[in-house]
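$ ./design --mode recover --in tokens.txt
reading tokens...
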């Protein structure tokens, strides 16, 4: 499994961040709506799951494992698939049942080989996700955005919702 280097900056002012991204020369890549089904691998293990996601560019099946809340705490293995609905049928035939359907919107930028995503999820404020090939690459972009690494978090979406007092597992569907 590969290591995912990623941080989040919560409670952002979207227009201010867009202006900053333009000012520092980030390239806007794409604006899109995304959808996903989430499946338990083992219902007893809340730190690993299967995600079927259509991100507006491609559809993929990913096994995600949270080892810890650090910048390098998520491991994943991902494969692209041709069709969201057919992949869902395949997973069902293998015995997996979707425990949740989730939607979000994303505005994607690139800067110095690092992905900067402005994420919008139902019921919570927007946040930035910064993903790169190393902690150092991410830290440089965070600094260029006007933040310190101490302003960031590496928690997953489940804990982001918990930060706002919401249990994401209370929702079989998260839609706008």
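writing sequence...
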């Amino acid at each position: 499994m590969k290591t995912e280097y990623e941080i989040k900056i919560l409670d952002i002012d979207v227009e201010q961040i867009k202006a900053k991204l333009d000012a520092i020369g980030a390239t806007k890549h794409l604006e899109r709506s995304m959808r996903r089904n989430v499946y338990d691998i083992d219902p007893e293990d809340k730190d690993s799951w299967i995600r079927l996601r259509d991100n507006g560019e491609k559809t993929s099946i990913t096994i995600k494992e949270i080892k810890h809340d650090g910048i390098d705490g998520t491991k994943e293995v991902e494969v692209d698939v041709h069709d969201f609905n057919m992949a869902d049928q395949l997973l069902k035939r293998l015995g997996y049942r979707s425990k949740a359907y989730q939607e979000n919107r994303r505005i994607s930028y690139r800067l110095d080989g690092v992905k900067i995503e402005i994420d919008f999820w139902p019921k919570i404020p927007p946040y930035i996700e910064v993903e790169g090939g190393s902690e150092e690459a991410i830290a440089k972009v965070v600094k260029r955005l006007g933040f310190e690494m101490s302003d960031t978090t590496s928690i997953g979406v489940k804990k982001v919702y918990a930060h706002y007092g919401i249990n994401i597992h209370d929702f079989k569907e998260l839609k706008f």
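exit 0
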